[in-house]
Amino acid sequence: MLAAPREFKSTDGKxxxxxxxxxEGDNVVLSMNGREFTVSISRFSQADQDFIxxxxxxxxxxxxxxxxxxxNTGKSDRSxxxxxxxxxxxxxxxxxxxxxEEIHFDLQGAxxxxxxxxxxxxxxxxxxxxxxxAFEVSAAPGKTFEWQGKRLHYRFDDRPPAYWGSSYAGxxxxxxxxxxxxxxxxxVPQTLEKQVDAILKMEEGAAFDRDGESRGRIxxxxx
Length: 223
What we know:
Blueprint: E1 6-9, E2 15-24, E3 27-32, E4 35-40, H1 46-62, E5 67-72, E6 76-79, E7 88-92, E8 95-100, E9 107-120, E10 127-139, E11 144-148, E12 152-158, E13 163-176, E14 182-188, H2 196-201, E15 206-208, E16 214-217, E17 221-222
Antiparallel strand pairs: 1-2, 2-3, 3-4, 5-8, 6-7, 7-12, 8-11, 9-10, 9-13, 10-15, 12-13, 12-17, 13-14, 15-16
């Protein structure tokens, strides 16, 4: 996040007009005429040092970094060969890969919440929380963060004459920075986008309808 151009004064009285591009440890990265320069913060006047400190604080609070996020469900679904009916066995094991595409911004201490959602085989349009995961996300500039959750096996029957259990239906992923600002959010399918806040507050096994209203408990037969 570039700050507006500002006149900086060094401790020896020299001045330059530049924009703050990043703060890296004891150094500040200044952008001037399309070029970037890394300078020790201690070389500037106290007023400029205070400005840089305030810029860093605000950048950490407000900056939404450029990221590439890939979510893999690790999902499988097959017929239960040990059963003479049309029961099915499913499983999933989510993994998340995040690439920090920033040049200077170091993503540290971010918090991710992943909720896996199932649909009631007996009552279509009735959903429930199959699994909840929370993990910390950190990625230096240009680096990749990877996470893998626990595999969940489940059984269900969504065909006549018997309907029972729950099957995989989607997920919600939200990432907040260390100060609680949402920097990434995705809901699959997109019809869940309006219910993200409500879904993240629910416990495992809680059921809800298409409008995000509570509908008791969902049945999950773990295999």
